[in-house]
Amino acid sequence: MRKVTGRRTAPPVDDSLRSRRRAVETAGMASRSVGFVLTAVYMSGVTDLAPAQLSNDMMIASWLALGLIAAANVLAVLARRRPASRWYSLLSAVQVLFDTVTIIAFVVVSERDFTQTTWPLLALSISIAAIRHQLLGAVLTFAITSVAFVLLVPDSPDLAFVLGTNVMTAIMAGSQSSAFARQFAELNETRRALQHQATHDPLTGLPNRARLAAYADGCTGRPLAVLLLDLNGFKEVNDTYGHAAGDVLLHEIGTRLALVLGDEGMVGRLGGDEFLVLLPDARAEAIGPVADRIRSAVRQPIDIGGHRVTVGVSAGSALRPAGTGTGLDALTAEADAAMYRDKRDRRAA
Prior knowledge:
Elements: H1 15-44, H2 56-81, H3 88-113, H4 121-152, H5 159-199, H6 209-217, E1 224-232, H7 234-241, H8 243-261, E2 266-271, E3 274-280, H9 284-298, E4 302-304, E5 307-309, E6 312-320, H10 328-348
Antiparallel strand pairs: 1-3, 1-6, 2-3, 4-5
């Protein structure tokens, strides 16, 4: 049960983001696997993809590429298995680094030692960085590839084309990736807000009937205690100070109930001044102390527009033993009957 603080904290990684990250890792592993095969074929000399005789530097660059591709794919497997891990961003950044070093090594050696034009491959590393780390990643990768090309291939006749093409790639790919990331985050925030509205009471912020029912369904087969609460004196507050005061009262009571319950279970509002508490795995002897803590918290005075008001609470409980199939509706009806007995007894006293 989350405590009511007036603000909702969205989970940092939800199902849609997990899915997107897995898709990125899968695509990365697939493309690197193709690169691994092509590099191996390139080194073998059995096709016309490579010059008849590779230089020592190209052999070193090719072996380096095979090692970095394999290492990056290992990291991709780890990242794909745990896309919500706090280490995901680091794993992703290291993959970008390995991909970039691989491409730089291949491009620099081939441009320097052979007549092949391979510098367009630098745009691939920039695009990879853009997909993973938006505009910042694209710009940083552009800077790294450009510096490496200028320093290691200073006499290239295509230098202006390399820098111009790559800066355009960085801007276009990076800005589009950043825009997509913002849109993705906004859509997820809207979806979470709609989901929260559908499962929570708008006045108190507590779970509503639908959320309580889903929580109870998740406790199937386990012991489950149900406490039905009804405020005593709420009507008088409404009649004396108005419905706005009643709303303030309900919100404060909801906050107190959430604080009292903590992580023991879930408390929600059924409607009006009725609240429902679900206690999974609770024993019969544990229900009384919880009810006592609730009564003590509820009866504390509440300041409403300069007026101090006090209300009480009547409570009724029902308990489902482990392994039985009693549903939430039946348990609530049983707790409701017990609550009215408690209310009647308090009036009689």
